[in-house]
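Quick entry, no commentary yet.
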Amino acid sequence: MIGLDIGSSVVRVVGLERGMSGQFVLAHCGSERLQPGWIMGDSVEKMIEVATSVKRAVAQSGARTKNVVMALPSSAIVTKTVNIQADLNDNDFEAQVESEISSYLPWALDEVNIDYVKLNPVIGTGEVEVLVAAARKDKVEEWQTIAEAAGLKVSVLEVGAFVRARMACSVSLANLTEFHESDGPLVANLDIGSVSTNLQVYQSGILIFDRDLSFGGSQLTNLIESHYGLSATEAERKKRSRDLPAGYESSVIAPYLANTALEIERGVQFFHSSSGRQRVSKIILSGGGACITGLSRAVSSQTGIACELASPFDGMTIKSEQVNKRLRREAPAYYFAAGLAMRRFLA
């Protein structure tokens, strides 16, 4: 299986293998830009165009498998941990799961697909903790339709929060010794997408906070568009190619970095005020929006917290020089796709 990450502005593909000694090998990697308006929020407006871009990204990656792991938009899924009587038969247990999750859903039960996994016994109660996920059927079908139109088959539909947690605990943050220490310091991961940013905070390798923030890398595109009088498509192209006039760094990049660093500081402050936890000691930036030169320095300066870019492929063997060259500047952008690809080994 390969990881297929469909964002609002780009499709990314990652394929992982296991080496002889058990280490991960990055075997496949590819991407394809999406035009503005093809995906609006969590709605796919141009199904055929998006599917064609998916097909191109997979072809660029060199992957031959047709099986993919994808993640549903966060707005299309609800997850909750509930307690259920452990000695119920399968039918009654499932009915109780549906009854428990229904009170948390903004949709009718017949509009969702429900899956669950039993976790730990609740000592002294005869109950068991159950992690439940309920996903909108129309969004499940939409993602499956895109994959099928691209000649692919969806093997797993994931929950985005779990994908990021998998990456944090297995690769990107796990090389921090203190990350797994009992009562260790707090580590924040900000995954910066095009229109939104996901903030997760971990302590001792456990996810303790997860929230979507309403800012992303498209704000830089908007600044270029308004400052130079360009169309959205042209502004995005010039941002990627860095084909912009002299003074771009001071007139556009500097304000963008300052504003993004301020938004990140507000997100971290919200975590502190809402949780009452100790101060975050390290910030890790991932996602396509993290690849702007100077952002980690700006965040560190604004927050007073050590900040660095995620390295999702640290410790992995890179199978080809072509893949290695593509990742030299964009590795943090493949953070989520790598987490999807990892499902094959770590489920």
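second:
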Amino acid sequence: MRMKRFQTSLGVCTLSVGEGAIENRLPVLTAGRTLFIITDKTVFSAHRAFFARYFPDCTPFLLPAGEKGKSEKQLFKILKRMSALGLKRDCRVFAVGGGAVGDVGAMAAALYMRGVSLVQIPTTLLSQVDGSIGGKTAINLGAIKNAAGCFYPAFEVVADPMFLRTLPRREIKCGLGEIVKYAALDPALFTRLDDMETAALSSITFLSELVADCAFLKAEIVEEDERDEGLRRCLNLGHTTAHALELFYSLSHGESVLFGLLAETRLAADRGVCERGFADKLTALILTSIAVSPVNIPDFKRIHSALQLAKADKKNVSDGMVRLSVPVAAGEWTLFALSFEDYASETEAILREIFSK
């Protein structure tokens, strides 16, 4: 197990990552506290022994799995349950699950009694390398993803690979998308992944070894820019296009990030923003990652309709330009703006060219 502490607006957050993290940290984090556990039905079913061992006197609040749990209705159900139990400000919320559980669980912790202690226990590869760290909370409003939320960092994040061994293949690939994003930002990580075969990139044993590196990198970024006003925007590499594809095609977030990062890297290289040599290496890594099973290539004949959703991206302002966080070189990135018309036509041409072969 590796540990890292970093400063947040609420104090110090501890990251505990690796084998034995649960066994070492949960007895400490649960001692002498009134606990409230939030998870989803899938996680609870897969890990009943875990809940029985570490939370024997608690009945978890069970969310619907996935994005259905990130709703105003579910958020207020949680808050009403906490109130009905008579929980006080000294209680501690444990959000045990993937990104959706972490988002709505953290938002409930932020709102209840104007803020109670929160521990994130991410159970997916995606949430362990990215989603559980940094304090972003959210629910969806209608079709708009993460439209309401706040910043509320956890007291501790406990990421143990014990949960990853039960993940379906699609969830592993979902986490791979964010790992590739971090590789674009970190030369050492990129070197580890460069020229990797598809088999290695689908190995949960290998990918588990990268969790701490990704998580600790994000912690360093968040410590410098918690509120997403500068450096933290580098974490949006590929995400403008990714969010549009995710909503339109019902792809997983990680799959969408791979396609989004591919398109935006090529676009940046074509416009002279990203070094061509690095762009070629990064796109090769992305294409190898896309080839990891299960392979799900959207129908890019409909891409123009999908890209309309990029107009609602939170990075955009009222000038009508689309703003992208794009790689420049190994470990370097920049914000890049272009008209929606240029963005849509160039992105469409790139994805159709690559996936019509």
